Amino acid sequence: VKKGKPRRQKVRQAIRKQLQYLRRNLGHIDGLLDRYAPQINSPLGGLMPIVGQRWPDCLKQCHIRKLWVIRTAYDQQKKMYDDRSLSHPHRIVSISQPHVRPIVRGKAGKSVEFGAKLSASLDGTGLAYVDELRWDAFNESKDLSVQVEAYRKRYGYYPESVLADGIYGTRDNRRYCKELGIRFGVKPLGRPKKVTTLNKEEIRQEKRQRRQDHLERIPIEGKFGQGKNRHGLEKIRA
Prior knowledge:
Blueprint lengths: L7 H29 L2 E3 L5 E3 L11 H23 L18 E6 L2 E5 L2 E6 L5 E7 L9 H12 L5 E2 L8 H10 L2 E2 L15 H31 L8
Helix pairs in contact: 1-2
C-alpha cells in the first residue's frame, strides 16, 4: 500500500500468492461439496453439484453463480500469470457484475471507466435514438452508416447533413457521406488551405459553417444526462 508503483516482480509475487490462496480455498469447497453431493459437468463449464434435479440445500443459487464466476476469474488470472500477459478476452473485473468490462477513456483522473457504452443519434425533431448499447468496448465510428440508414428507414430520405464527434471522421465515413451527397460536419483532413485574396471569403464561410455545426451538435451531449436523470439509464451504471 505504501508503494505507489511497485516493481513488476513484486506485483507478480503478490499475484502468485493470491492465486495460491484462491486455489486452496476452492479446493476446500470442492471437498465439502464432494461429501455433500455428487458432481456432474455443468453446461456453463466446470463442475456443478446436483442433488437429483434441484440445487443442493447447502448452497443457494446465487452462491452457485458466484462460485462459477470466481472459478472463471481464477482461470483467467492464472492464464495471464502463466503467459505473463496483461490482458485477457472478456476479463472479469467484478464478481457481482461479471458482464462489466473496463473501458479506457483517458479522461483526467479517470483513465478507465466501467459500465455500458452507448452509441446514440439525435434527429432534427429533437428525438434521440439509442442505436447501440454494449458492455464491451467498441469503436462507435463504425456505426455511422448504420445510423444514417436507420434515419432513411424512419423518414424515407437521407439527412441533409451529419454532425458528429471527431472520432467519426474516418476516411470510410467521409467517403460514405460524399457518395450520398450528405454534408459531413467534421474538420477536413490535411493541412488548412492557404489564405489568398481569391479564397479568403470561402475559407471564412467554411469556418463559420464548422462553428455552426459544432453549436448544433451540442444537444446530443445533453441527451446522455437526460437519459440518466429521466429515462432510467442511471440503473445501467454507464
